[in-house]
Amino acid sequence: MEKNDYDVVIIGGGPAGLTAGIYAKRAGLSALLAEKHTPGGQIMVTDWIENYPGFPDGLAGYDLTMKMEQQAKNFGLEIVQADVQSIKTENNIKEIVFTDKTIKAKSVIIASGCSPKKLGVPGENALFGKGVSTCATCDAMFFRDMDVVAVGGGDTAVQEALFLTKFVNKVYLVHRRDKLRAAKMLQDRAFANDKIEFVWDSVAESVNGEKGVESVDVKNVKTGETRNIKAQGCFIWVGTIPNTEFLNNDIKVDDQGFIITDTSMKTSVEGIFAAGDVRNTPLRQVATAVGDAAIAAFEADQYIESCK
Amino acid sequence: MADNVLEIGDANFEEEVIKSEKPVLVDFWAPWCGPCRAIAPTVEELAGTYGDKVKFCKCNVDENPISPGKYEIKAIPTLIFFKNGEVAEQQTGLVKKEQLEELINKLT
Prior knowledge:
The complex is a heterodimer.
Chain A: E1 5-11, H1 15-26, E2 31-35, H2 61-74, E3 78-81, E4 84-90, E5 93-98, E6 102-110, E7 114-116, E8 132-133, H3 136-139, E9 147-151, H4 155-164, E10 170-174, H5 184-192, E11 196-199, E12 202-208, E13 215-220, E14 226-230, E15 233-236, E16 240-242, E17 272-274, H6 286-307
Chain B: E1 6-8, H1 13-18, E2 24-29, H2 34-50, E3 55-60, H3 66-70, E4 78-83, E5 86-92, H4 97-107
Parallel strand pairs in B: 1-3, 2-3
Antiparallel strand pairs in B: 2-4, 4-5
Helix pairs in contact in B: 2-4
């Protein structure tokens, strides 16, 4: 990192961060994107994206990431691997503190995204990576011809459960309600798939096993009955939590920790914007993330202009 | 990929990992696994820094089913540190560089 001051520092390299980078660079701003790992975000683990316009046959999450990163680099976006520790504001200048350096910027766009939420049940942590997983594309092949439990009822849960059926013998899809939240098209596919058995009105109570997952205890919330399902894998897709460990109390968040913004993507701190999944938003999709990010970069430019 | 990380497989696992005099870090990965690709640059970077103390290897689980089976790998990316042919540490998922550096320092 040669420079240490920028017009805008973007935190996070998923679709929102990369889009903010594209718009910031095209607005003529000096911009740095800091990503904890490598660009991509949660879509890196999505096997197939078929609701992002412009790709009529759909495409792998990884490929969409690569295209967005290339596009951002074409406009000269600087991307570094760096882990943000905190953001401080001093006389309108933002200081972004990383583990090994501090960068100054006129504005910040937080696009740090989300991570999969945990169930918080016994066995989940101890057996993580030993049968407990949140990434079907990564781990499905280790469960070839085995039985697995999948927990959740949203788009991700249903889509990933469908992916699992290409490998496993059977998927028990455990959902706490009696109907799915997922998009109708995904529901139709799941209902038509005879490898998926639905376990309605139920929650996972514990993941059991010594060296690996052997079974999952599932409780019916209506009848109170507990059922032990023999399975070698337990895939969990019960929502997400925002990646905001680096925030201090200045930036207002909702009761679940998502950053509150107005329609201009402004947070409660002047000059700091938020975009994508980390934001308090009704929908978390690639399509909404890129929309947020375009607005955030535009508003950051307006803000910098107004400070002159 | 730079040359810092040695591509190994079932055929030479014994030779390159188990019989190695230096501690070995093996990155079990697959081309279709997003997080594996995400962690690869970190492993690459560590190999550049600690290559003299630790031997860095990567093993494609798609092409080499025996080794991941032997170590009961059920998720990737998984990083295993071997010392004197034995498993010393095992990490699954996206691990931060600092954490890995700590492990390397502990084991060397």
